[in-house]
Amino acid sequence: MKKKVFFRWLKLFLLVYGLVGISFYYGQEKLLFHPIPLHIDDRYPFPKPYTEVNIPVSESANIHLVQFPANSDSAKGLVLFFHGNKENITHYADYAPLFTQKGYTVWMMEYPGYGKSKGVLTEKTMNEWALQCYKLARKRYEPRQIILYGKSLGTGVAAGLAAVRDCKSLVLESPYYDLPSLFRPYLFLYPLERLLHYHFPTYQYLPRVDAPVTLIHGTNDLLIPLRNSRKLSSFFTKDDRLVEIEGGGHNNLKDYPQFAATLEQVLK
After folding, report:
1. CATH H-level, domain 33-266: superfamily
2. Which of 20, 120, 151, 261 has the most CB atoms lying inside 10 A of its own CB?
3. What are phi and psi of 226, to 5 degrees?
4. CA–CA separation, 198 vs 177, rounded Å?
5. Distance (Å, rounded) from C-alpha 20 to C-alpha 233?
6. pLDDT for 41-95, tens place per residue?
């Protein structure tokens, strides 16, 4: 009798385990990415000045780049901004003034399927597109003028780029150790490295970054917990730092004076 009960529970466990694993494998894009596409002729709701640049990649893919000019005649440099997983550039455009008012031009790239960018969304494609934008930037700016900034999902993209190209500084807002680590507390019984199509191993990138690294993280971030940045700080060199914003969440860090003070130091 006990054996029958045991095997019934075992079958139920295996059934649930399999269903959850299959659902996660095929539904991970919906968990990770929340794009809102736009038609190429749509107008952005945020105010000008800005310039749109459309870079053809293939017959079915293009990189869409929005450029916000610096509020000065001679720009100090460029901030390549890699945004999070929500919507499109419209959701992140309010970051641009934080840099343009300090004399920096800002370029924001849309990932495949976001905004006016078209193409198949993969980790490889995101990294390749980031490199394309960097190469375009290098036609106008020296590495010592280029700041790479990543927010949330974009921190893996920015860190990956900084690992293979020179820049003035790398800034990561609410970064993750790697993407599997975000799901491991909930799916610890699963081989996440095999199930996930996306990894963005930030912890592997940081030791290869020559520029100063600044991590900014809120102590009350429930989406990407602070422990991610604290683990990443074990790879720091002497010029790197972790700024912990007391009480900060995932999407409100720029409302804190400490955030503005940190950017002020980075942009000097």
Report:
1. Alpha/Beta hydrolase fold, catalytic domain (3.40.50.1820)
2. 151
3. -55, -25
4. 13
5. 33
6. 999 999 999 999 999 999 999 999 999 999 877 779 999 999 999 999 999 999 9
